[in-house]
Amino acid sequence: MHDFTATYTDLYQINMAQVYFQQGKHEHKAVFDYFFRKLPFEGGYAVFAGLETLLEVLEDFKFSDDDLEFLKDQGLDSEFLNYLKGFRFEGNIISATEGDIVFPTRPVLQVEANMVEAQLIETILLNILNFQTLVATKASRIRKSAGEQMLIDFGMRRAQSTGAYHASRAAFIGGFEATSNVVAGKDFNIPISGTMAHSFVQSYDDELTAFRDFANSHPENTILLIDTYDTLKIGLPNAITVGKEMKSRGEELKGVRLDSGDLSYLAKKCRKAFDEAGLEHVKIAASNQLDEYVIRSLKEQKGPIDVFGVGTNLVIGDPDAALDGVYKLAFANDKPRIKLSENLAKLTLPHKKQVYRLRNSEGKLTGADAVTLRDETDIKHMNHPFDVSKSLSFKNCNEEALLHYVMKDGIRTEPPKRLEDIKVYSRKRLAEFSEEFQRFENPHLYKIGISDQLLKEREALRNHYKNKDA
Amino acid sequence: MHDFTATYTDLYQINMAQVYFQQGKHEHKAVFDYFFRKLPFEGGYAVFAGLETLLEVLEDFKFSDDDLEFLKDQGLDSEFLNYLKGFRFEGNIISATEGDIVFPTRPVLQVEANMVEAQLIETILLNILNFQTLVATKASRIRKSAGEQMLIDFGMRRAQSTGAYHASRAAFIGGFEATSNVVAGKDFNIPISGTMAHSFVQSYDDELTAFRDFANSHPENTILLIDTYDTLKIGLPNAITVGKEMKSRGEELKGVRLDSGDLSYLAKKCRKAFDEAGLEHVKIAASNQLDEYVIRSLKEQKGPIDVFGVGTNLVIGDPDAALDGVYKLAFANDKPRIKLSENLAKLTLPHKKQVYRLRNSEGKLTGADAVTLRDETDIKHMNHPFDVSKSLSFKNCNEEALLHYVMKDGIRTEPPKRLEDIKVYSRKRLAEFSEEFQRFENPHLYKIGISDQLLKEREALRNHYKNKDA
């Protein structure tokens, strides 16, 4: 299930593409940068996600006859529509590795293609990468709080329509173990997990019978929801009864779930009662408006919770709910390009570029990524991108190039990656960053610099337009 | 394009359904309520949206062979899976009319179906109705600020993955005139609109040529983006040049778009310059992080802006990004059902119910909806749902029943509605509510009461479970 078509776009992309086509610009090569300006959640980093989804969409990018008929009715030019009939994306994608830790200002991905190709994929690219990066980053923060505890994505019902699908994918990359989302589990090979709802218990005349029926039907996977009527007075005793019955049959009650009330307090009461009943194996799961802060608090209180089910706040990327990623032209028809702004921080970086992660001679992070012209090497000095008074010199650095060709002429350079591998890579990359970058409150600022040559190119372009209006 | 399958659900629905099936509960009739507890955006009302999407999904609700194969691998029972093979939704939907103004606590929609049917559609129902109601409500607030000005949805690139699709639908219901979203325009017959991006201007060596090429390609629909280099010094003079050229050819420059800087100030400067150049017909469109508050401010400053393009804040329903709608069992196997909670406001309302909008003898709103048992009539007294000390008597009220059968035995009771008709209905319904309910700051509280009989039934059930644990 992926539901992106070539008409999954803003109309202006098609309107602009028509002009490019008519002006022969579909022969012009362009380079666009994908980057964002602000880290989500006031955090210290972001987890890049969505690349595989994007590549899959680009491989399959075409206009159906139905699409073209619709566009014709919208008054678009018939010669142009004829060109779109056979249109495929045949450009290059140079990208950070999915799952890598990324930062504002620096390109996360570049598109090299003709102007029409590059323009027509803008909306879909932004839509995919912005959202999955947002949710993977949120998931990573929740993982940070949860430590070794199990995390399950429960967010589908409050997700933004079919956004739930990619939310579950991104949550897994960011560090979740499982999802309640069946179709995401099926398509992405994410372990799926499910307990029971209050309605299940309510549909019976008494809770105990409800619990027994569930245990009989799912002996391998019984997690009882114990707060429908009263957690400690009704639910817990019933769960102990069923736990003992299962034990006597040689089965194991897997767990109980708490979905309301004081989760830490209730978990302690439950743990004690289960242990006293000889049911030490019963796990305690908790849900109800959890996020990285609530989970941190529950851990601080030493609530003996084994599994956290996180819903709304995860899948909508609360409280930001959107990453401000943009797609800006950096190079076209053999010339570097810039977008000016009264707001210096909205100035774009022209040219084909590369991004290096600077490491010391032992390979450890130095705390900075440098943005350079594509083919520059031996960077010894970098500049603050927006504050010319600030710069940084360094020596004996190992430069790790962060952007790689993942698609050439519309064809992937390597086979699709397994989601599990992306997740493992992401954890490994994040582990390189010290606690200071990962903390929630005023995290340490990871530096992004631009090389002397890139600065020079940018200033030359700025002056060009400044002089123009004089 | 709609991408909901029967596996677009939480696993626990399927797990519970298996138990119901094994216990013969697929023969039991159940009634579930869909309602929410908190109005979004600290506002005074919500706009109900998503019903047509839901009905379309329910008509087509089935498990594919592929789905069943996957569920088999997950360890589900083969007899149950065999039952799912031929599964269709054959229940009833009793709902508020799409576009109506709705409030917390009272049922917005009820599902009457067998336990398996009702449980299996829970996730998809919540997912659809929660999100579209959120965005339609947001759109309605933005419409309130914008007054007669045109509103266009520009949010696709920051939407939550394919959530953009239904966001555009809901935005139209809430009061937007058009969208940039091509596929939503195509599928929902929403007018689509598009201007140009900065990249278009950047791809040229000079802005004037870019503008001219666009005007030649789209003479009927040229809206020039004038802030790529410098709005007043470069963009505006170039737009005037092109506007005059078009005029001399007997064409009309449709408008310009401002996407950065002080929108009110720039709009005034542009308006004056266009008027002085004899280009009074050129409209001014503005975009850039707009929402109902920014638009209100722009209107207060009398910025002569004709069109507002609203993106991120609309399509993600910022700042809430989720409506807290829930789906609770009210009746099963011939008995009313309740979910208790330490938090009184989380107590559910048992039984098959109806909701009445109370009007005075002239048909005007009295400011209250009453929730009653399904077949009660002649309500003269209602009670606060959670505060027993509060009640309200009334007489000579006209009771407008708000919930109607829209699906019986899995078949719609009437043909699909046109989106335009839903929107017109919604505007008409909202217009009945006075300014006090529509204001953004501390809006007037619309009252929800429950009838004496419903209160009695609820209290009887509460006591039943209270006595149980004694």
Give a short overview.
Chain A is 39% helix and 19% strand. The radius of gyration of chain A is 26 Å and the shape is globular. Chain A is built from 17 helices and 21 strands.
CATH architecture annotation name of the domain at 148-315 in chain A: Alpha-Beta Barrel
Largest sheet of chain A: 7 strands, antiparallel
Q: What characteristic shape of chain A results from the CA principal axes?
A: globular
Output the CATH class name of the domain at 148-315 in chain A: Alpha Beta
Structural class of chain A: alpha/beta
CATH topology of the domain at 148-315 in chain A: TIM Barrel
Distance between the termini of chain A: 54 Å
Count of helix runs of chain A:
17
CATH homologous superfamily caption of the domain at 148-315 in chain A:
Aldolase class I
Our estimate of the beta-strand percent of chain A is 15-25%
Question: Biggest interface and its residues per chain?
Answer: A-B, 112 and 112 residues
Mean pLDDT of chain A: 95
User: Helicity range of the residues of chain A?
Assistant: 25-40%
- Compute the gyration radius of chain A: what is it? 26 Å
Low-confidence residue ranges of chain A:
none
| Sheet with the most strands: spatial strand order of chain A | 13-12-1-5-3-19-20
Quaternary state reads homodimer
Number of strands of chain A: 21
